[in-house]
Each structure stands twice: as structure tokens, then as C-alpha cells.
Amino acid sequence: GENVEQHPSTLSVQEGDSAVIKCTYSDSASNYFPWYKQELGKRPQLIIDIRSNVGEKKDQRIAVTLNKTAKHFSLHITETQPEDSAVYFCAASIISGAGSYQLTFGKGTKLSVIP
Amino acid sequence: DVKVTQSSRYLVKRTGEKVFLECVQDMDHENMFWYRQDPGLGLRLIYFSYDVKMKEKGDIPEGYSVSREKKERFSLILESASTNQTSMYLCASSQTGGGTDTQYFGPGTRLTVL
After folding, report:
1. Chain B residues with CB inside 8 Å of A98's CB?
2. What is the spatial distance between Cα A49 and Cα A91, in angstroms, rounded to a whole number?
3. Which residues in chain B have Cβ-Cβ distances shorter than 8 Å to A95?
4. Share above pLDDT 90 across residues of chain B, in percent, rounded to a whole number
5. What integer pLDDT is reported at residue A68 of this predicted model?
6. Could you report the per-residue pLDDT of A27-52, keeping only the tens digit for each?
7. A58 neighbors A74 (Cβ within 8 angstroms)
8. Which of B41, B85, B37 is nearest to B63 (CA)?
9. pLDDT of residue A53
10. What is the pLDDT of residues A82-104, one digit of tens each?
11. Which residues from B are below 8 Å from A49, CB to CB?
12. Which of A31, A46, B18, B62 has the fewest CB atoms within 10 Å around its CB?
């Protein structure tokens, strides 16, 4: 089955700096890569996702890049703010025409943005 | 907005008790999932269901069972609770097709087994 490795497990940055979280996956058939953000005491929520037919996707201050050959993808957060402090999870899945069923998650990165 | 609710936010049970955790979603999603979340281990899939009365084992099904009698409801059952099942349990649901696989999570149930 799929295996997703996520690094680093913790990350501290100064407010305004950039943060990068990296994930690798093992199943070359995986074609859908979402990122979830979980604030303290709250439920995980999707913040951005990317499919294997594109190499990069941006949404305001966050971006995700995908390298299919190397089987890794990364989350980039620019101009970090205190409200970006949370645990971030990457995940991988195979989406078929009928829809995929399960995501395999990384172990999470705790991001702390220091004011 | 998709709404996923779980029956309890906090639950304390004794070793050997039978425990039921319930999850309800209101968006007519086909897929429902149960995860447990432990520090440093991320989200691990216990069971999932892609249709009423259908279930599939996830990565850590031992000691758990599930029931899905209605589309909107997915129950996780601990037949005989043990202390190593103390954890945060998260339910999620997703739609089939539509080009997306966004999973919508419930608020979680923190289960303590004494």
C-alpha cells in the first residue's frame, strides 16, 4: 500500500518568513495530493490540493509543488502569520473515474509562527 | 456547508466495556471514514465505507468494527475497550466523483479507557 513520509515534524519560523513542508510517497499510481490544516483543538480542513497532471498550484500565500518523477510534493507558505500556526498533514490518494476512497496521510508537521 | 457531527466530544470508559462512537453527515456523501489520531503518528485509517452496508478495513482495524445501516450514519464499535485504544477518533466523509476527494472531518471524540 501507499506510504507517505512527511518532514519536518516540527517547524518554527519568524512571522513574515516562508515555511516549507515536504512529503514523499511510494505508490507511483497516486495522482491526488491534498494538504490539510488542523488548528489546535479543531478538525482538519483541506487548504489546497494538487493533481498529478500539474506541477504547481497557488492560492494566495500558499502553494503546492509536485515532482512526479521523484515522487515528492511540498507545501510552501509565504509571509507567514501567527494564524498559520497549526499542524499540517499531507496525503496521497488514487482518484479513479468512480472516485477514490481513501487517503494515506503523513504524520504531520507542527508549524509555529513566532510573532 | 458540509456538516459532520460526532456523538460525543469526550468519553471515558472502562477496560472491557463495549463502546459505540457515532458519526452523522448531512451532505449525502457516499464515503465515510474512521481515523484515530495520536501524537507523532498522524491520522491512521481504521475503517471506511463507500456505501450502505459496505465496509473496508483500513490500516489499523484490529480491535474495532463498524456499522453503516444508513447512508448518513457510520458507527465505530470497540467490542472490548482496552487502554491502548485511548485516543482521539475522527470521522470524515467525502463525495464520490466530481473530480475531488475532499474529506470533511467531524470535531473528534477524545476517548479515554481506564
Report:
1. 96-97
2. 9
3. 99, 101
4. 82
5. 93
6. 999 999 999 999 999 999 999 999 88
7. no
8. B85
9. 83
10. 999 999 999 998 877 665 678 89
11. 100, 102
12. B62
Contacts of A105 in chain B (CB under 8 A): 42-44
Sheet of strand A62-67: strand arrangement: A4-7, A19-25, A72-77, A62-67, A56-59
Nearest to B87 by CA among B60, B114, B110, B54: B110
Single out the residue of B58, B20, B103 nearest to residue A99, CA to CA. B103
Q: What mean pLDDT is predicted for residues A57-74?
A: 96
CB B63, CB B50: distance < 8 Å: no
Q: How far is CA B9 from CA A74, A108, B13, B64, B80, in A?
A: 33, 22, 13, 19, 20
Does A49 contact B at CB distance below 8 Å? Answer: yes
- Give the single-character DSSP code of A99: -
The DSSP result for B15-48, as a single string, is: TT--EEEEEEESS--SEEEEEEEETTTEEEEEEE
- The whole-number pLDDT of residue B100 equals 67
CA A76/CA B57 separation, integer angstroms: 33
**Integer Cα distance of B47 and B77 in angstroms:** 11
- A25 in contact with B at a CB cutoff of 8 Å? no
Contact flag B95-A98 (C-beta cutoff 8 Å): no
Which residues of chain B are at the A interface, by a Cβ-Cβ cutoff of 8 Å?
30-31, 33, 40-45, 48, 50, 56, 58-59, 90, 94-103, 105-108
A104, B104 Cβ separation under 8 angstroms: no
**Backbone torsions φ then ψ of B88, nearest 5 degrees:** -95, 130
CB–CB contact B58 A44 (8 Å): no
